[in-house]
Amino acid sequence: MTTIVRELTPAEFPLAEKIWEQYRGQKANSATERIFGVIEDGKLAATARFTRHQDGNEMDCVFSLDEYRGKGYARKVVQALVDACGSERIYIHSTLVLISFYKTFGWTPIPEDQLPKSIRERFIFCFGEMEGCNVCPMVREPGRVK
Description:
CATH class: Alpha Beta
Order of helices and strands: EHEEEHEHEHE
Radius of gyration: 15 Å
């Protein structure tokens, strides 16, 4: 078995979109995004996406296909993203059960009103109650070490 962790090329973005059909049907944009993946035996198994918004950077689409879960691929792909983009501030919307996972990479919980507007608006349906939607906003400061 061969496992590779690396940044995807824009030509490979459709592979991520195929995986994301199982994860909220996300689409990729090579103009504003970088996508990192774990590739097992030539097949994309897990992803993490870095998006540059006008007012801040966000990580999302941390997702592993069901058949690859339990192999530590989420950790590997998030680490690859942090290694490549960690010199910038990065915001996330963590599910409540994954807060401790993201803390191991240097993210810390923040109040909703500290999120950049464009990132906060992605969860506008929570109406100021992200915790009630099972979501916790978090930030990782530039250069933060685990």
